[in-house]
Amino acid sequence: MAFDLVVRGSLVLADGILENGYVAVSGGVIAAIGQGSPPAASEVVDHRGKLVFPGLVDGHMHTSSSTGWPGIEGASMSAAAGGVTTCVDMPYDVPRPVTDAGILAEKIQVVNATSHVDMALYGTIRKDGGVEEIAGLANAGVCSFKLSTYEYDAVRFPRINNTMMVEAFAEIAKTGLMVGIHNEDQEIVEGAIAAAKATGRTDPIMHARTRPPLCETMADLAIFEMALETGAHVHIAHSSLARGFDLAEIFRKQGGKTSGEACIQYLCMTEEDLVRLQGFGKCNPPFRTADEVERIWGSIAEGKVAYVSTDHAPWPKSRKEYTGDIFACGAGLTGLQSFAPLMFTLLRQRGLPLSLMASLCAERPAKFHGLFPRKGAIRIGCDADLLVMEEGEFTFDARDIQDREDAKWSPYDGMAMKARVAGTFLRGHCIWDGKQVLARPGTGRFVPRQHGETFTG
Do 425 and 447 meet the contact criterion of CB atoms below 8 Å apart? Predict the structure, then answer.
């Protein structure tokens, strides 16, 4: 029987590389994997000499935090060009966060009409309540929940107080879903910012100085204690500190369901980059020291990091421009289109196996969000989502970003890369050919959580 499609190349799996391999596809699903001469197929795409990864699963991005749901269309184009075939989108949307099943249904309609890649969705609660909506959100297909210990906006991105956090955790525990937490202590940060402004210090480095490591670890300890109390799977949404992963491990050993992810910027960017990039290097938590970057790589080596994500947040350029007050700049980075080349480059620079990319950037995020085995791996039965990487000497150019014009900026602009994305396949269809996005709005689909089993790594 002939397959619909065969893609040839060296297959990068989570446990090693299959040289001279092939992936055979039927009905958008991987039907066979092998080496050597491929079976008959209606179409054969020959990428021998290149590396074929599972399509990346980015477990953390904000497509709609600045422009609302219309942002899904452009951000998902960036994803397609970056080899990210499944986005897991945060619920903090303009003007309404995803706080009940009705809002979720509306967002799903927009995803199915406008996204270029597949998309799973987080749910959240309101500052003044909404715990009773958690079961309905889970039943409607959210893959995870997101809450915050820090408030950016009372409606869109509120701080949830400890009393309500415990109530929410207890309810989320019944679903088996993970709850990611934006982990910064509000009082420490607000006090530090007020002190900095009082002395006239609003230069870029003060963004890092006013969000010290203690503001993260204090929040980590609080949420992990609540995890022990309630039985919920509580997850640090972005740890810029190796200590965050250490704390997650300590609480796991005490019986907690605790974990944490590293965003890719914390694997390569430092405080010096914040000074250089100014507003375009501002994110929360902030970049840390070069020594801390090394410690996080140590956490990866020790298997303490759940997965690696981007925290993609494509603020308009005007919101990122520094004009003397770093606190006035929007917090967040673009990262979807640079994700695959950058992770590949960092692994090559450190002499680490490329299988780590297949694991940390595809299989493990799919498992944490309950999307595996449909997403995240090159294995029989998975959706035929593939990323083709061509090795060489390349430069990342922000002008090539596939998105609206004011989102074409990147902290990685001009960075030397060891590979480029030569092709992206979504459910067996080529959606990026190395030059242009072939997908159309609506090619991507909403992906509900596949099961209620908890995975903590």
Answer: no
